Amino acid sequence: MTIQIRTTNALEILDSRGRPTLSVSLTLTDGLTCTAGVPAGASTGSGEAVEVRDGDLRRYGGRGVRSAVANVTGPIRAALAGRTFGDLAELDETLRSLDGTPDKARLGANAIVGVSMAAARAFAAAADQPLWRYLTPPGVAPALPVPHFNVVNGGVHAPNPLDFQEFMLAPVGAPDMAEAVRAGAEVYAVLRARLAAAGHATGLGDEGGFAPDLTRPEEVLDALVDAIVAAGYQPGPEGVAIALDPAASQFHRDGAYHVAGRAMSSAELVDHYAELIDRYPIRSLEDGLAEDDWDGWDRLTERLGDRVQIVGDDIFVTDPEIIADAARRGVGNAALVKVNQIGTVTETLEAFRVCRETGYAAMVSHRSGETLDTFIADLAVGSGCGQLKSGAPARGERVAKYNRLLEIAEQAPDLPYARISRSRT
Ligand code: PGA
Ligand code: ZN
């Protein structure tokens, strides 16, 4: 199936944090227009593909994206307009070679990923397929992913004293997508009531989770287990399990990890995680250590890799080559997948392929700065990876993705709800 491009367009819009991002559109010669909203992170890995921002301090504190918009309406339009493409890989390769840098710094990963996502939608439409089906590689079984609801926010996503960034609920034992969403929303509601009753503020962090003035991870984990039980669910693999993203690069300073007022070595922090995993029904630990602490990651994987999923975000940055390297070395056992971290949909699909071939699990992820775009819901289904994190079951930009999963489940009743293999037992 081919597409012929008439033009590309872009607009500077706001993301969910009130910062500028791009809405990108691609119009085909047959008149069809496909759009994409570009996500943006806050706790970014240093190896991520590079966003182009204006740096003009008179606008949005330098965060404006008019220059990235100009790249979509200038050089990218000039390279694509009037051309016919046989597949997305060919189009993405054109974007990459037009950019010419290893990290997409010239045209901007924000500009490029928007075009790539819009183009994926155009190819899906040309093939008369829903996006998730188009994104399913041959031989891969699509599945509805277990949603990972980030219900307590800390780190750089909230102004509270919590050092760990994300505390997630994973309804791994739910029978289907609708029940999984219900479990997340019901536990979230109970958690709000209990935090309020204990005198905590129930304002929200960037990803829609509560941001109470708690300091120790154990206090949050106790509150989560209580809320799961009070909402009528079983904590653990048969019901609602817990996933953590401490985002440790953010609290790693001067050679130590700073958690709840304690300075810990890498080995001490691994001991701390082991204790938490002994005490709480944790199934997944993302970025437990900093992105440059590969020796620590070796230790972490060796010590806990057969008990929980060890997910690399900042350390792998959705880069197929880094994931392949990590797999050779046995670092981690899962990769977080963020489309804007690598910059094209084709390279994202490549990252999933490396995960499948090396036996690594994969989890699709939103960014702290989001739009109403639901691309990642389709990506999570199509990849068959079985896991999606898209924030709390609250705030429009977060629930848009979960609502899209409900819609896909309704439209494709034969799609299974994922059974995740590396659950804690
Ligand atoms: P970010 O954080 O989108 O702010 O980078 C998300 C994450 O660390 O998983
Ligand atoms: Zn992360």
Structure description:
The protein is of the alpha/beta class and 425 residues long. It is 38% helix and 18% strand. It has helices spanning 66-80, 88-99, 109-126, 131-134, 177-197, 217-230, 266-279, 294-304, 320-329, 339-342, 345-358, 375-383, 396-411; strands spanning 3-14, 20-28, 33-37, 84-85, 146-153, 166-170, 241-245, 252-253, 256-259, 262-264, 282-286, 309-312, 334-337, 361-365, 387-391. The protein has an eight-stranded mixed β-barrel, surrounded by six helices. A four-stranded antiparallel sheet has the order 3-2-1-4. Helix 9 (320-329) links the parallel strand 12 and strand 13. It is globular. It binds 2-phosphoglycolic acid and zinc ion. Residues 41-44, 245, 247, 313, 365, 367-368 line the site of 2-phosphoglycolic acid. 2-phosphoglycolic acid binds next to loops.
Oligomerization state of this entry?
Answer: single chain
Q: Tell me, briefly, the overall form.
A: globular
Calculate Rg over CA atoms. Answer: 21 Å
The biggest beta sheet reads: 8 strands, mixed, barrel
Q: What distance separates the N and C termini?
A: 45 Å
Strand order of the largest sheet: 5-6-7-11-12-13-14-15
The chain-level structural class is: alpha/beta
Helix content: 25-40%
Number of helical segments? 13
